[in-house]
Amino acid sequence: NAELSASYVYRSMAGFFDRDDVALHGFRNFFKKAAEEETEHAQEFIDYVNKRGGRVSLKPIGAPKAEWVTPLEALEDALALEKEVNGKLLAMHEIAAEAKDAQMTDFIEGHFLKEQVDAIKDLADMITNVKRVG
């Protein structure tokens, strides 16, 4: 559910930046793309669970935040979200490793961990640049 929750937050951010009283279309495009990527990640997990004979159980997702004072605030929220998702992936990886489930550890490593590190770095760089320009 972490990936779907992240997608939901990013869709809210994209919608916020697309509003006529905000109109920051570069941020809208960035967060819309992030939402689509998170949805793809969720689908990869669903497909993987089904491939291994498991059952997918989706839980309710609470409403995400809908307003940000500045683009910097949204980027900082996105960075915290990516770190949270990364932590959940690492926890799943640890559980799989303890269970000696090499397929699951390989799946997580091969599909998600590098992307998470890259996303965290990209967001941190964007935050630095936004702070630099004021």
Which keywords apply here?
elongated; 4 helices; 134 residues; mainly alpha
Short description:
The chain has helices at 2-18, 25-51, 71-98, 102-133.
Please explain how this structure is put together:
The chain has helices at residues 2-18, 25-51, 71-98, 102-133. The chain is elongated, with a radius of gyration of 16 Å. It contains four helices and no strands. Helix 3 packs antiparallel against helix 4. The protein starts with a helix and ends with a helix. With 134 residues, the chain is an all-alpha fold. 78% of the residues lie in helices and 0% in strands.
Topology:
Blueprint lengths: L1 H17 L6 H27 L19 H28 L3 H32 L1
Helix pairs in contact: 1-2, 1-3, 3-4
| Derived structural class | mainly alpha
Straight-line distance between termini: 35 Å
Question: Shape from CA axes?
Answer: elongated
Which regions have little confidence, pLDDT < 50, spanning 5+ residues?
none
Q: Please state the CA-atom Rg, rounded to the nearest Å.
A: 16 Å
The largest pleated sheet is described as:
none
- What is the beta-strand fraction? under 5%
Contiguous helical run count = 4
Oligomer: single chain
Question: What is the average of the pLDDT values?
Answer: 97
Helix amount: over 70%
Q: Please report the total strand number as a whole number.
A: 0
Helix-strand pattern, N to C? HHHH
